[in-house]
Amino acid sequence: MQRNPMEKLLELKDLTVSFKNNGQKITVVRQVSLAVEKGEILGLVGESGSGKSVTAKSILGLLNASGKTRVSGKIFLNGKDLLGEKSGQGEKLRSRKLAMIFQDPVDSLNPVFTVGYQIAEVFMAKEKMSKKPAWKKSIEMLKRVEIPSPEWTAKQYPHQLSGGMCQRVMIALALAGTPELLVADEPTTALDVTIQAQIMRLLYDFNEKTGAAILFITHDLGLVAQFCHSMAIMLHGEIIEKGRVEDIFMNPLHPYTRGLLNSIPVPGKKERLRPMAQDLGMDPRSGGCRFFNRCSRKTNQCEWETPNFLEPIPHHFVQCFNMGLSHG
Fold it and tell me: 20 to 30 Å CA-CA from 174: which of 107, 110, 234, 258?
C-alpha cells in the first residue's frame, strides 16, 4: 500500500520516563524524539534493558497508574498530545487508534476467559454488538490470522494453546480494534523459526492491506532488514541513530550501530565476528555519550558533553561526535 512519507501518525518529543526506587529517581528513557509515519513500519532496535518496552508502554499509557512513575514530554497521535489531553481523553484516543502485541502472549491474555470471548469483547465494546454476532466476528478474526479449526480454538483458554497460537490470538485481538498504529513488542520472542516467519507475514499483510502503521520493537536486526521501512537504534534509554533501513545497514554512522552490525553472522563471510566491549549498565552521568564506556573511538568530549542529533545525510540522523568512524 502506498504511504505518504510526510504524514506523521505518532510523534514523540523529548519523551522521558523515570521511576522511584527506594527514594532514588532512576531515568530509564531520556528525551526520546521519534516519529512514525502513516503506513510506515518502524523498527525500534536495542539490547535488552535499553528502554524499548518502556517507550512502548508510555505510548499506550500503561505506566501512569503508579505514583512512582513519571512520564514527561510530548506524545502526539494525529497531532493531539496524549499527555496533555484532559483526564480520560487521552485514554479514549488510545483505545480508538492504538493496539499492542506483547512479547509474552500467554501471560498477556486473560486466563479465566476463552480466547473467543476475549476477541468478542472488543466488538461488544467498540461496535456495541450483542454477544452472538460478536462471537461470530471473533471466529472470523481467528480465521483471518490462519488459526486452524477456529470454531474449536475460540472455545479454548490461553493455557490450552501453544505460544505461537496465543500470539496469533493476540494479533486477532489487535486487528479486531482496527488500529491506526500497532505496537508490536518483540512479537516473535521464544517462537521457532517457522512460526516466527508466519507471524511476521501476518503483520506485514496487515500493514499492506489496511495501511496501518507498525512500531516493531525487536533486538533482531535480521527481521528489521526484511520487514521495516525505517529504524531507530536505542541505547540506555536514548535514541542514538535513526533513518531508513537501507541507509543504516549500508552506512551505519554510530560506533554502537556499527558494532551491532559487525556482530551479525553473514553466510559465506570468513571474517571473524567482532564482539563489542562488555556493557557496564546504565551510566549514572547526566551528560555525555551513553556508549562512552564501550567505545574505542571515544574522546574527552564524549565523556561529559552530550552530542546533538545531526543529519549528515538526508533522512539519516545520528548522535555522535565521531560519526562514520569504524568501531574497532
Answer: 234
The residues, any chain, with a CB within 8 Å of residue 148's CB and separated by 6 or more, are none
What is the rounded distance in angstroms from the CA atom of residue 91 to the CA atom of residue 83? 10
Which DSSP category does 285 fall into?
A: -
Distance between CA atoms of residues 30 and 25, nearest Å: 13
Report the distance separating Cα 186 and Cα 179, nearest Å: 18
Q: Which residue has the cell 548522535?
A: 319
Looking at the DSSP assignment, which residues form a beta bridge with residue 160?
none
Confidence at residue 328, expressed as pLDDT on a 0 to 100 scale: 38
- What does the pLDDT read at residue 259? 87
CA dist 251 and 45 (Å) reads: 16
pLDDT tens-digit profile of 203-214? 999 999 999 999
Domains and CATH numbers, the chain: 8-250 (3.40.50.300)
C-alpha R_g of the chain: 21
User: What global pTM score does this model have?
Assistant: 0.89
First to last CA, the chain: 41
CB atoms within 10 A of CB 252: 24
Q: What is the Cα–Cα distance from 148 to 235, expressed in whole angstroms?
A: 40
**Residue 37 β-bridge partners:** 8
